[in-house]
Design brief:
mainly alpha, two-stranded antiparallel sheet, 2 strands, 1% strand
Length: 302
């Protein structure tokens, strides 16, 4: 079994594959490489597909809130201007060259979508369903399940195999993913809900891809765009089911943890996805059960 290299799996994606053929880990000087094998495409796409299919079960008995009927295009425009401007400043200029703190530098490079979302939430008084807690009773539930579990599992395997403990790097991946998901799923994909689902997914994926600021016409970029389409669909299903940005960011971050595949990394990925799928199925059943009880109580009052 191949040894786990924690520096190979804990660096968040800061651009498209061609941009990231070589860049440094925030916790060391070792260079990493993306897309050495097309196996990465397979396991990301399959993971998103399996989870999304299981989540896409019938939701009878669960109370559904009224759907949005209008898209706030001015809010979307302002959000994206802020997101892509900050992306350009932090990734295409020398603005962050003086930063010696690798953790902070990584976070700033991915903060644009979150800052853009927060600005439009405030200016346009927009309220969306996704939150950190989601439809869980307490924030500790999604925090332990979607952040605590991968941190514990990856650090445990890393320590057992290599004798190292890269907590800061793993935390950077999760925070980076959360900042992106606040924008893509917390705002943009929700704001585009009135559109047909396929158009919604295509628009979000296209804006997400463009945000990476790599416009070279290459096979790697085409594959990357395909991953973003599948990811937009799959992570969107996670957000719609749990209403939790912690859950959405976990799936986003798992995609960034595993930039290359080997037996051990695929095992870790499969373990995380399996546990999350089972917990989501159980969560749906609990929501249905609670809604039935609520409906029965309401009927008994008349």
């Amino acid at each position: 079994m191949a040894l786990l290299s924690i520096q190979m799996i804990v660096v968040p994606c800061q651009g498209t594959p061609d941009q990231n053929k070589h860049y440094k880990s925030p916790i060391g000087d070792k260079y990493i490489s993306f897309f050495k094998s097309n196996k990465i495409i397979c396991h990301h796409v399959v993971s998103f597909y399996i989870f999304a299919q299981i989540l896409n079960v019938e939701m009878k008995g669960i109370q559904i809130e009224p759907l949005k009927t209008k898209v706030n295009y001015p809010a979307i425009g302002l959000f994206y201007i802020i997101a892509i401007a900050l992306r350009y400043l932090t990734n295409k200029t020398s603005l962050l060259e003086g930063f010696t703190n690798g953790f902070l530098k990584i976070i700033l490079q991915g903060a644009g979508p979150a800052i853009g979302a927060w600005v439009v939430f405030l200016l346009f008084k927009i309220k969306h369903k996704p939150s950190l807690r989601g439809n869980y009773n307490t924030i500790s539930s999604p925090l332990l399940l979607y952040w605590g579990l991968p941190i514990t599992l990856i650090l445990g395997v890393e320590y057992a195999v290599k004798g190292t403990f890269s907590f800061v790097a793993i935390l950077a991946v999760l925070v980076y993913g959360l900042l992106e998901e606040i924008g893509w799923r917390g705002f943009l994909q929700q704001e585009l809900k009135p559109l047909p689902e396929f158009l919604n997914i295509l628009l979000v994926a296209t804006l997400w891809f463009t945000w990476h600021l790599n416009f070279e016409v290459t096979t790697s970029n085409a594959l990357f765009f395909g991953i973003l389409i599948v990811g937009t669909w799959g992570i969107g299903k996670v957000a719609d089911t749990t209403h939790s940005l912690l859950a959405a960011s976990a799936f986003h971050s798992v995609n960034n943890f595993f930039t290359e595949t080997d037996t051990l990394k695929i095992t870790i990925l499969a373990t995380l996805v399996t546990i999350w799928v089972i917990s989501s199925i159980y969560r749906k059943k609990q929501l249905k059960k609670n809604q039935y009880k609520h409906n029965d109580a309401s009927v008994s009052q008349y």
